[in-house]
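Side project, low priority. Logging it here so it doesn't get lost.
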Amino acid sequence: MAETQLDLHLEIAHVLFIDIVGYSKLLINEQGEVLQQLNQIVRNTTQFRMAEASGELIRLPTGDGMILVFLHSAEAPVQCAIEISEALRSYPKIQLRMGVHSGPVNQITDVNDKSNLAGAGINVAQRIMDCGDAGHILLSKRVADDLAHYRQWQSCLHDVGEFEVKHGVKVHVVNLYTDDLGNAALPGKFKSGANQSIVSSARTGEGWQRSAWIAGVLIAAIALLIGFWFFWQRGAQKRPGVAGGNTARATSNEKRIAVLPFKPLTTENRDQVLELGMADSLITKLSNSRQVIVRSLASVRKYGGLDQDSLAAGRELQTDSVLEGNLQKSGDHLRVTARLINVSDGASLWAGTFDEKMTDVFAVQDAISQKVADALALRLSGEEKERLTRRYTDNLEAYQLYLTGRYHWTKFTPPDIRKGIGFFQQAIELDPKYALAYFGFAEANRSLAINADVPSKDCLPQAKAAAIKALEIDDSLAEAHASLSFSLIWYDWDWDGGAREAQRAIALNPNSAHSHFALAHVLSDQGRHDQALAEVARARELDPVFLLYRALEGMFFHHAGRDAEALERLQKTADLDSNFWVTHLMLGKVYTQQRKYSEAIEEFGKARELSHGNSEAIASIGYTAALAGDELKAQAVLDELKALSNEHYVPPVNVALVLNALGKKDEALASLEKGCEDRDVRLTLLKVDPRWDSLRSDPRFIAILKRIGLE
């Protein structure tokens, strides 16, 4: 027989080994249920989805658990383990132990001609995991040493010591835990003596038979061949909702709720700010639990009509329950009624009435939040219980000013955004420690940069400073981290910092649509399209009727070169609401790329009208007219933009768009360079927007991309 040569292409991988404790004691049908639940939990972690979308993950079934092999980031398996541990709070019957190690792996072909992996990276991760008990997240010393260089990990790492495993090999184990996650207890095997060896119990299951290990393959001192089925996930594979267009639930056990704007008990002396604000405050409180997904204020405010059917709203918002209420303010007295309704059958899950002084509005909100949490049977951690009743201010006047700011800002028109900024500023002046008011001030200023023709220098530094101040007061505000992410990429061109803030936001609140949307923006602008589409799909799943996420999902598909899917998304968004100008702007871009110039100009015209003259919509008409051969119309648009610049600021990137389409390349590049000086937020799309393809080989354009960190 000819000698077979083993081609060992060793690669360092980062391995998370997961084992279900007590699996063999379960009934057969219980085993299937537990595995199905675990699979769903793991698939919904941010780290799993990001690695899967980028083709940097191998997942391997082990019968009573699984192995996740991350090919890029050493932090990914640890962060994934933390996310799994957090999710398990809702599944007390599932007991896991997890082990993490970074080491060499090698892809081989087994006797069945199936692709398998072998290597010390997997073996040692298993040995580390075998040291643990239920709840333990154990790391090899190699992984712990890598994490110890970062402040955020240092307090979580607790050295356990060495243990002798099979064949006399010793592993050095570090226990990762916090006050809320992991298992702080010393692993039982360490209690029983450091010289005891760990011999793994036999496993059975699809693709994994220890009795079938192929002897003779040695990698390093401890490598044993491990055979199993595996599925290589590449970026072309899509999660539900990305390719199919259907909103998909992340898990069947997620609870979804909409808090609708409260209605007046009588129509006289209405206080619409307080009616919407009561819903807003309860949304903020309930969003602190990871076990419930709460629709955003921007999505629910459209259901504030006096004749709105709450069950119909719940169905449209795709929720399981709806919290509706009435309130009336009379002098210093407040009367509030609230009712939690099951959307499927209209049954009342809880109802209550509160008659209090206006100064006790915070106590009313605390009581309603707690009753809703109880009715939904939420299992809250100590931190979540504290945040459920946290009061960001005790100053009633500051609170009312904040609500008024939110009322105006969420209309998303430039005049209302400016009104909102004024009210947020007044709230801050009354209570300089009001973190939510700083967050509102940050978001409103950030919105001006993209919704209005306002110089970035006049709003984005203010947005960044306010977001930082909010986080100095309360670092756990997930959406303030997301807001800071936008400022970092739009103004500082700090792409790594922007990604970190968005990822931090998701880690704090995986159910924050805004946080997933922020990360999607960072990824898309850098050309990491598969990952971006996965994140924006998750944002849409979490907030399915918020038009901005839907419209910009279309933009991300367009920037990924997938115009058919972009068009499908945008047409569905237009069907939901034909008056949202951003949808028409994006439709025009797709039609332009498809050379449907008359349709594109029609859509840009709608965007111009609905936005009350947004200069990008105007410039896009000129750009498309030039491509269609109508240079007179394009020049007329260019002249109009120059005339408008005498009245208000016109972003240089918009002017450059028309100049380039007219063949005035040098002037277009000069205008883009002026955009760099102005920190024009629209520059961040240069790498992926196909409208700039004709300039991509020009050294001046390349220099601009390098200047803004995109080359």
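Brief comment: The chain is about 50% helix and 15% strand.
Revisit when time allows.
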